[in-house]
Amino acid sequence: MSARRPLLAALTALADRIDRLTGAVFRVAAWGALAVVLIQLAVVLARYGLGLGAPWLQESAVYAHAALFLLAAAGTLARDGHVRVDLFYAGASPRRKAVVDAAGTVLFLLPVAAALLWLSLPYVGRSWAILERSREASGLPLVFLLKSLIPAFAVLLMVQGVAQLLRALAVLAGDAPAAAAATE
C-alpha cells in the first residue's frame, strides 16, 4: 500500500496541473462571452441604428462564439459542468462514480476526441495551406485560425480526459483526497 502512495500522489499532482492548465484556458475563453455580447450589440447598433452592414463584425461574433465554446469545453469538463445522464451517477458512491468516469473517459471521451483530432488535421492543414479567408469581400481573413480551434478543442478535451481518468483511478485505488477533488 505504501509503495502505491507516492505514485497516486504523483498522478493526482499531474491531474491538478492539467486542471490548472484547462482552468486558465477556461478563464480566458470565458471572456469570450462578454466579447460575443459586445460584438453582437455593435452589429445591431451598426445595422439598425446606423444602417451599416459590417460582415467582418458579424464574423467576429461567430469567431468569438466558436472560441468560447471550443476553448471552454475542457474547463467545463474539469468543473463537472457537462450534461450527463445521471442514471448511473446520481446518488452513487465515489467508487461507482469513479468507475463510470473512467469507463466514460476510456470508451467515449478519449476515442471521440482522438478521432476528431485525427480527422480535423487535414481539414485545418488545407485551410492553413491557402491561408483561407472569408467568402465575404469585407469579411475576416482568418478562417484558417478559426478552424485551428477544432484540433485545439480535441487536444484540450483529451488532456482533461486524462486528468479525469487519473482522478478516477486514484479513487479506485483508495485515495480519499482524489475522491474529494473529483467531487468538487
UniProtKB/TrEMBL annotation:
Alphabetical keyword list: Cell inner membrane, Cell membrane, Membrane, Transmembrane, Transmembrane helix, Transport
Q: How does it sit in the membrane?
A: Multi-pass membrane protein
InterPro entries found in the cross-reference section: DctQ (IPR055348), TRAP_DctQ (IPR007387)
GO MF terms listed in the record are:
transmembrane transporter activity
Any one cellular-component term (Gene Ontology): plasma membrane
Query: In which compartments does the protein localize?
Result: Cell inner membrane
Q: Would the keyword Cell membrane be found if you checked this record's keyword annotation? A: yes
Domain Tripartite ATP-independent periplasmic transporters DctQ component, chain residue ranges per copy: 37-169
Instruction: State the Pfam families in the record.
Output: DctQ
> Membrane-spanning regions, if any?
30-50, 62-78, 98-121, 142-163
Function, as annotated: Part of the tripartite ATP-independent periplasmic (TRAP) transport system.
- Subunit arrangement? The complex comprises the extracytoplasmic solute receptor protein and the two transmembrane proteins.
User: PANTHER family of this UniProt entry?
Assistant: 2,3-DIKETO-L-GULONATE TRAP TRANSPORTER SMALL PERMEASE PROTEIN YIAM, SLL1102 PROTEIN
To which protein family does this belong? Belongs to the TRAP transporter small permease family.
The protein's name in its UniProt record = TRAP transporter small permease protein
